[in-house]
Specification:
heterodimer, A: mainly beta, seven-stranded mixed beta sheet, four-stranded antiparallel beta sheet, 49% strand, globular, B: mainly beta, six-stranded mixed beta sheet, 0% helix
Chain lengths: 114, 108
């Protein structure tokens, strides 16, 4: 089965530092997403990305966050000036199209801000 | 936005027992998926099921879109079935909205 891959699997960073989480979506997919799950809570939508631009974002996705597709394969989430409350599991996901298509999730990147 | 509620929130079963997990959603959906989150935090796709019934081994799912609910059946449960089960839906937007999950513990 095709896979979404994410790196790193776990990162510990000091408060105030910048973090970049990387994802390689499934190769023929066109829609990319980042989700976040704080420990013990449900999975929350952050942002969706299509055709090299953000198509939708949640209220969580403020100016601290940015996404980029720097080349034909990677999709990144940058978190500037990290805060303690940014500690969470971050999931990347992708799908081939809208409606009638399964959304596939990566294994997650666990971010701990200390 | 669309609301997704799951029940029960917690479930403890003895190995070999059967269970039914429920997902209610507040509006019409284009996509409904069930996930199993294992103890390592990974989200495992179980079913893509916006309508109808599907089966995969000991698991099956049914979605009745007109009545806005979906059911996940686990038969002959095993300890490896433990974890959190999430239902997630998309409405008119492409993003998935997740429910709060059902935490399942299967004991020997």
């Amino acid at each position: 089965e095709p896979e979404v891959t994410q790196t790193p699997s776990h990162q510990v960073t000091q408060m105030g530092q910048e973090v970049i989480l990387r994802c390689v979506p499934i190769s023929n997919h066109l829609y990319f997403y980042w989700y976040r799950q704080i420990l013990g809570q449900k999975v929350e939508f952050l942002v969706s990305f299509y055709n090299n631009e953000i198509s939708e974002k949640s209220e969580i996705f403020d100016d601290q966050f940015s996404v980029e597709r720097p080349d034909g394969s990677n999709f990144t989430l940058k978190i500037r000036s990290t805060k303690l409350e940014d500690s969470a599991m971050y999931f990347c996901a992708s799908t081939r199209g809208l409606g009638g298509n399964t959304i596939y999730f990566g294994e997650g990147s666990w971010l701990t801000v200390v | 936005g669309i609301q997704v509620e799951q029940s029960p929130p917690d479930l403890i079963l003895q190995e070999g027992a059967n269970s039914t997990l429920r997902c209610n959603f507040s509006d019409s959906v284009n996509n409904l998926q069930w996930f199993h989150q294992n103890p390592w935090g990974q989200l495992i796709n179980l079913f893509y099921i916006p309508s109808g019934t599907k089966q995969n081994g000991r698991l099956s799912a049914t979605t009745v879109a007109t009545e806005r609910y979906s059911l996940l059946y686990i038969s002959s449960s095993q300890t490896t079935d433990s974890g959190v089960y999430f239902c997630a839906v998309t409405g008119t937007a492409s993003k998935l909205t997740f429910g709060t999950g059902t935490r399942l513990q299967v004991t020997l």
